TrEMBL record:
Residues 255-464 form the Histidine kinase domain. The chain crosses the membrane at residues 14-35, 165-184. SMART domains: HATPase_c, HisKA. The lineage of its organism: Bacteria, Pseudomonadati, Pseudomonadota, Alphaproteobacteria, Rhodobacterales. It comes from the Bacteria. This is histidine kinase. Its EC number is 2.7.13.3.
Amino acid sequence: MRSGRFLNTLSGRFLLLTIAFVMLAEVLIFVPSIARFRQDYLQLRLEKSQIASLALLATPDEMIGPELTTELLANAEVFNVVLRRDEVRQLVLNSPLPQPIYGTYDLRMAGAYELIRDAMDVLIDPETRVIRVIGQPTRNAGELIEITLQTDGLRKAMLDYGFRILILSAVISIFTAGLLFLAVQRLLVVPIRRVVRHMQAYADAPEDGTRIIAPTTNVAELRDAEESLQTLQTQLTGSLRQKERLAQLGGAVAKISHDLRNILTTAQLFADRLENSDDPVVARSAPKLIASIRRAVSLTESTLAFGKAEEHPPILARFPLIRLAEDVVEAEGLSATTEPACLIDMAPSLMIRADQDQLFRVLSNLIRNARQAIEATGKPGTIELSGGEDDSHWCIRLGDTGPGLPPKAREHLFTAFTGGARKGGTGLGLAIAAELVRGHGGTLELVRSDGEGSEFLIRLPKSAPAEPLA
């Protein structure tokens, strides 16, 4: 079990691959080496045979006894020696052949492929053969030399040489694999295990900033991984801390909203009495005051609902969009003559179906953001609110001539606490607006944001009412 587990580790697999690749390299070296050994073996037989033939040629009348001939041939390990000198082919030494000649090999014209092929044939074939070998005499002592010999001695020598090569290859492979194993352990496995330990320790307490990994390795790829993990852990820890603070803030806001709702309800009772005032200014202002208090009460109730992680479904009703737009603009203290100027461009007859209070909050958030963006530049600007419809949707556009949104704000524009474009802002406005529009089954998107300003588009469907948000 332990060996199987080791082989499934990075170290074990790397060790096996190293041994396999080194052995493969040794095999690729072994094949031409064994072919070269065979060529050297046969060349040595040719040289010994040439020396034996020269001993015969040096005797008077070129005659020696049978015993000396046998001894010379046995020393050269051949059966026959033929020399070609001065265009004459001469059988110098001769003895009976135990079997017919199996094949002829000319070492003078053999290439690498032929040498390797012939060497493999000798290793594979266990039968003893008689072969003829032709070569070039040394020191130009003739035109060619030809010998016949058996392959059993050649094959035995080749097997012995190959065995020694394989043993040496195995030793080299094991030694090399061991060194590479230790190198991989130090350079890769140890840093990876360190990263894994940091991940496990961080998973136990992700809020603990002291458990965030600090990059230390010098390997470029591993350092990139450690730096990426450090960034991820830092962001996650910050997000968890923010969520914790948000939860605490949510509890406090819920308590405040509960008390504020009671206060506003009392104020609403007093405001209802103002409608019966004889003062015409008070009589005109009373409905707007009552509407504002009613929206404040609705907002506190929505805050309490938000603390329960839910938003009540929109209460859909038909109403003229221009009336809602004028109320929002007036509530924000803007008009066509203020600075910045706020222009309304929509048909008085345009009727839409939506939750009037929720859409009021959406438009109020968008207009407030646009006004703050323009005021931050210290230059005059314009906010334009327009509306229209097609066969399937009502469309509301809100554009401004502000500086546009920074790239970081556009990246998380509709995410709470991360999409704020204004320094010190929470980023809740657009997140709440997008959620309220989704509750209607519609969409809120940023159409354009550049140096000339920003433009948002609200699309509300004319189809069946949206499902409640959860």
